[in-house]
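Marked as duplicate of an earlier ticket. Keeping the data here for the record.
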Amino acid sequence: MRDTKLDLSTGAVDLQFATPTVMAYGLSKGLISEGDVIEVALARYNSRLVQNELEERIALLLSDEAEQLRQYLPSIPDDDELDEEEPDEAIRLAQRVWIYLTLRAIREHWNDYDDPWVEIEEWLDEFRAPDAYKRFIYYEPAQAGRPRGLNGMLIDLDSYLDRESTALGRHEIREKR
């Protein structure tokens, strides 16, 4: 597992996307801590975005009760289980949100990496990302109609981030409970 964590204190996760499944997925990948999940859940609670009693219970956990958090979150199948069976819609959406957030974070700190394309490749591998994301792996051949070369890939990445931000902004996330 990668040892980089995303800084959620900067508002990297729009509260509407911070559902228990999205937070559980980020926690399972080591992207966020239990404290982050509780902090984000509390922000959702204060913004009146909680969808059910379970979310409210998570939001109101005290910091010394963080070890209880996982019993309230949905279980996320491990990578081997995800390889064997098609994940449900909530997990696919959680994966999509975290891929977007991770690629956005890398792009925002592009010059901090020795080779940001390697960082992207490693994260996409960590997420077991669908083939649609292969266009961001620099040694993969360019798909028909896609920009070529590293500059073209950077243009494609920026375009993806803009489109995905808009698409996720229109997507209402409701969790079944």
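See parent ticket for discussion. The two ends are 30 Å apart (CA to CA).
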